[in-house]
């Protein structure tokens, strides 16, 4: 059984313009006290073919975490358009929300993102 259970992830301000910050309300529960921090990361996948175009938008440490229920909003700046290949700016890509404990990733939540223009 896991010491940490993600109970909900809500995408806030959806849909939003490309250059707006991303916001996720993350709810989780801790079943055992953790002496070290949880690390939450948000990564924008810049290209399906080449992970060198991926951009880590945010990384935050939360903890130490006691037994209980928690909720917080993770806000991240948008990706830097100049670091995305021109052919990959418009269309579908992925945002990855991950959580790690002591360097060990234990959850990965992916979201499809459709970038379009008016």
From TrEMBL:
InterPro entries: ASF1-like, ASF1-like_sf. This is Putative histone chaperone ASF1A-like. GO terms for biological process: DNA replication-dependent chromatin assembly. It comes from the Eukaryota. Gene3D superfamilies: Histone chaperone ASF1-like (2.60.40.1490). Belongs to the ASF1 family. Pfam families: ASF1_hist_chap. One of its GO terms (cellular component) is nucleus. Coiled coil: none annotated. It comes from Solanum chacoense (Chaco potato). It is found in: Nucleus. SUPFAM superfamilies: ASF1-like. One of its GO terms (molecular function) is histone binding. Keywords: Chaperone, Nucleus, Transcription, Transcription regulation.
């Amino acid at each position: 059984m896991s010491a940490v259970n993600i109970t909900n992830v809500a995408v806030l301000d959806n849909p939003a313009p490309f250059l707006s910050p991303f916001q996720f309300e993350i709810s989780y529960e801790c079943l055992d006290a953790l002496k070290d921090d949880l690390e939450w990361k948000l990564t924008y996948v810049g290209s399906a073919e080449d992970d060198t175009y991926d951009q880590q938008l945010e990384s935050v440490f939360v903890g130490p975490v006691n037994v209980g229920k928690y909720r917080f909003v993770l806000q991240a700046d948008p990706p830097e358009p100049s670091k995305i290949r021109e052919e990959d700016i418009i269309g579908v890509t992925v945002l990855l929300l991950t959580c790690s404990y002591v360097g060990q990733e234990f959850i990965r939540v992916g979201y499809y993102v459709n970038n379009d223009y008016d």
